[in-house]
Amino acid sequence: MVNRKELDPEKSPGAAFGQRLRTLRDERGWTQDELGERMGCSGAHISAVETGRRPPTQRFAMTVDKVFGTGDRFERQSRALRQTALLEGFPEFVKHEARAAEIRLYEVGVMPGLLQTPDYASVLAESAVKRGAITPDQANERVSLVAERQAALVRLSPPLVLVVLDESCLRRPIGDPAVMDAQLMRLAEFAELPNTVFQVAEFIMGHRRPFDLPITVLTLPDRALMSYAESAHRGHLERESTSVLPLLTAYHQLQAEALSQAASVAMIRQLRKGTQ
User: How confident is the model at residue 235, as a pLDDT?
Assistant: First the structure.
């Protein structure tokens, strides 16, 4: 035990997985070799996973759940490790998004995940694979996450969802015309829901646009505010309401400058004529 490495679960998702695995193993009084025998692997492999030197595969995590009787707890935790293509802070943000009372989002360039059709999401993921930015497995994770996020919003008391899309989201072609037509139709259907507000920020807004990058502001059930913003290489989750409040004010200014929902839907209908 002299050389026993201390684990910091806050260091990374891999470290958190390893620390949880060690805790359960210690509770059983098993050595790494004894756990390895039960799982069909070596004690050295258990050690590597516990200390974060080797990421757990899905099969490994499922075996851990079976051995310890933890349902799918470890399998779900390992999923975060496989989502290495996701920006820092995003997995945690998604958890808060799923319980938010109000969601305000602004997007540039592409449709936001909450509004993407499966085909649209697949085209984006497949394109990232072709560029070598992510692996095929990570692409599947991205598409699955889009579906999971959308499903989480279909609940007994759905959140109020306010969306402002930069005009570039509508005019940038993704996939073939059929994919874009279905995606534009999805936006029109979204605008008709009783718990949504949909607007388009036209190009002519120019310097009056308060945001240069995508932003999401969440109002949680206790009315606390949280925001998530990202660039091409990093994401930032802001948990302090006092820091988020100016963003909420800027979002209201954005809505005031954007097209009305009726005018935004009219733009969608006009664009659909060019995709059919």
Answer: 76
Task: Give the domain range for residue 21.
Answer: 13-71
Residues 39 and 158 occupy one common structural domain:
no
Query: Are 66 and 106 members of one domain?
Result: no
CATH number of the domain bearing residue 187: 3.30.870.10
Q: What is the number of alpha carbons within 13 Å of residue 34 lying toward its C-beta?
A: 8
Instruction: Give residue-wise pLDDT tens across range 152-169.
Output: 888 889 999 999 999 999
**Block residue for tokens 């997007």:** 107
Q: Which helix (H) or strand (E) holds 22?
A: helix 13-28
Widest pairwise Cα distance in the chain = 72
Q: Say if residue 36 is in the same domain as residue 109.
A: no
pLDDT at res. 88? 63
Q: For residue range 27-39, list pLDDT tens digits in order.
A: 999 999 999 999 9
Residue of 79, 71, 151, 63 lying closest to 113 (CA atoms) = 151
Residues in a beta bridge with 229:
215, 236
Is there a single domain that holds both residue 104 and residue 63? Answer: no
Q: Is 103 left (phi over 0), alpha (psi -120 to 50) or beta?
A: beta
Q: Is residue 226 part of a domain?
A: yes
94 and 52 in a common domain? no
CB distance 129 to 250 below 8 Å: no
> Cβ-count burial of 150 within 10 angstroms (0-12 exposed, 13-18 middle, 19+ buried)?
middle
Task: Look at strands 160-166 and 196-201 and give their pairing.
Answer: parallel
Band (pLDDT 50/70/90 cuts) for residue 53 is confident
When divided into structural domains, the chain yields a total of: 2
Average pLDDT, the chain: 89
Contact at 8 Å (CB) between 52 and 14? yes
How far apart, in whole angstroms, are the C-alpha atoms of residue 74 and residue 92? 17
Assigned domain for 42 exists? yes
